[in-house]
Design goal:
- The chain has 234 residues and is mostly helical.
- The protein has a domain of 96 residues: Serine Threonine Protein Phosphatase 5, Tetratricopeptide repeat (Alpha Horseshoe), CATH 1.25.40.
- Helices cover 71% and strands 0% of the residues.
- It contains 13 helices and no strands.
- The chain is elongated and about 60 Å long.
């Protein structure tokens, strides 16, 4: 998830005219190449904050992390309350494997009461923590994200995976069921729940869920993994 702030005036005149807002619209539709072309003239410190944030996102999605970070640095430096730019900088830092700096950005978003990015910031901070070898912290921040938004399915799935890595298949299975209650056809959740059931000794349950994976998407990577366990169980 990336944060595309509304393209509105931030107290500065935009030199790019309507093309800048068009570029942000392209970005919102997922057309990164056309967005970058429309936002070419937008520079750090020039134009609306929304236009600059949009260009930073386009650069980030194009793999130009260093340029994106520089642009988000300028945005946050000029307005510390620009939460979307801070969040996006965190994503760019995470992609650049600068885990501690990214975690700091996500931490600052997590503590803003009522902000729509709090849960996603918790999820991304967990990614930073695990990458940096802080698995216990990752679990803590995933739980915090879920407390803010119980419907954040990716957080339930990721938490299940981390709990499974810690050997707690029962707790992991509960998280996979949370995913399946919202996305019944989630292949990763079906697979992981089946494997957890197998590890806990529930053969019939394991067979049921593993077969569902194969039936739903026989050519998928999840089905290939499920087949390995089915060979042992059947």
């Amino acid at each position: 998830m990336l944060a595309l702030a509304p393209v509105v005036s931030a107290g500065q005149d935009s030199p790019g005219g309507p093309d800048c807002s068009i570029g942000a619209a392209f970005l919102a539709r997922g057309d990164v190449d056309r967005a970058l072309k429309s936002l070419t003239g937008v520079r750090a410190g020039v134009g609306t904050a929304g236009d600059q944030n949009a260009k930073g996102l386009a650069l980030l999605l194009s793999g130009r992390n260093d340029e994106a970070i520089a642009l988000f640095d300028a945005l946050v430096g000029s307005d510390e309350t620009f939460v979307e730019a801070r969040f996006n900088r965190g994503v760019a830092l995470l992609r650049s494997q600068k885990y501690d700096a990214a975690a700091a950005d996500f931490a600052s978003v997590m503590v803003i009461p009522g902000h729509s990015l709090r849960a996603s910031a918790g999820f991304h901070r967990a990614l930073c923590d695990e990458a940096a070898g802080r698995r216990a912290d990752a679990v803590k921040h995933l739980r915090a994200a879920i407390a803010v938004d119980p419907e954040l399915v990716d957080a339930h799935l990721y938490l299940g995976i981390l709990l499974e890595k810690q050997g707690d298949c029962e707790a992991a299975g509960a998280q996979y069921l949370e995913v399946l209650s919202r996305r019944p056809e989630s292949l990763p959740a079906l697979l992981r729940f089946g494997i957890c059931a197998h590890r806990k000794g529930f053969r019939d349950t394991a067979l049921t869920y593993l077969r569902r994976v194969v039936e739903a998407a026989p050519a998928s990577a999840e089905a290939m993994e499920a087949q390995k366990y089915l060979v042992m169980l059947e």
